[in-house]
Write a structure and sequence with these properties.
The protein is of the alpha/beta class. Helix content is 43%, strand content 14%. The termini are far apart.
């Protein structure tokens, strides 16, 4: 029996990463294992996309710091990288638009690769078969399927789909229906129940992959920031290089936690005024 060709997948994680923790990185590993264990997929890349300052979340430090910490955290990874496009935008960008941007980039990259392959094949045929050249034939390479892009998130993001004015219904449909979602659950979160209660998620349930982290791990960026501003150790909760970066620059103080206090989140501002 010939081996079944697996569908290539790129995982995209959007979020604050304020700061990035070991659990953020662990999510990528869990998602890759889950997808590849189905025998249908081959995860070829992971992308971390920190949100821009325009998101206006309480305690959100400057994007350039969060991007740099994410880069330090992924230095040892051979498949996860950081993309700063979202973080560089002057205003908050909807997650659906971020997904569109990266999907378009994948398509453009695939097209360029195909064009290069076509040229190489054409040259090789001219060298190997000079006497058989047919001017009416067209040289074309075997096109490789463009990798599927799937949004990687925690159960909290999945459940946030139900928060009024936080997401546009059409954006949820686009992300889940056209691309797909890989949701990592932990603790008492019940992603399956939320999917069952949501019509749009239920209709696209075959495009949602839920995997549970069975090793109890309640690391959250919120807990890390709290410990940091209280002078408590957070070693082994985040990569050493990230901790060093934080300590060298004195990030995450009681003062920084007040940033954007009393300010409405960008999506709530935008969708509340248009609803």
């Amino acid at each position: 029996m010939e081996p079944v060709e697996r569908i290539r997948v790129v995982l995209l994680a959007c979020g604050s990463f304020n700061p990035i923790t070991n659990m953020h990185l662990r999510m990528f590993e869990l998602a890759r294992d889950h997808l590849e264990d189905t025998g249908k997929y081959k995860v070829v890349q992971g992308i971390i996309s920190p949100v821009g300052d325009g998101y206006k979340k309480k305690g959100l430090i400057e994007a350039h710091h969060r991007v740099q910490m994410a880069r330090l955290a992924t230095e040892s990874s051979d498949w996860i990288r950081v993309n700063d496009w979202e973080s560089l935008q002057s205003e908050w960008v909807e997650t659906a638009k971020v997904v569109r941007h990266h999907h378009s980039t994948l398509l453009a990259t695939q097209q360029n690769d195909d064009e290069v392959d076509t040229v190489k094949i054409g040259k090789r045929r001219r060298i190997e078969e000079p006497e058989c050249v047919n001017e009416n034939s067209s040289v074309s390479s075997t096109r490789k399927d463009t990798p599927q892009l799937k949004l990687l998130c925690g159960a909290d993001v999945l459940e946030s789909f139900g928060v009024p004015n936080l997401w546009k219904a059409e954006d949820i449909e686009e992300i889940v229906g056209h691309h797909g979602l890989v949701c990592i659950t932990r603790g008492s979160s019940d992603a399956e129940r939320f999917i069952q209660q949501s019509d749009v998620l239920w209709e696209n349930r075959k495009n949602i992959f839920v995997t549970r982290e069975w090793v109890t791990n309640d690391i959250s960026a919120t807990h890390v920031r709290r410990a940091l501003r209280r002078g408590q150790s957070v070693r082994y909760l985040l990569p050493d290089a990230v901790l060093w970066y934080i300590q060298q620059r004195g990030l995450y103080s009681a003062e920084s936690e007040k940033k954007n206090a009393g300010v409405m989140l960008a999506p709530l501002q935008r969708y509340s005024t248009t609803s």
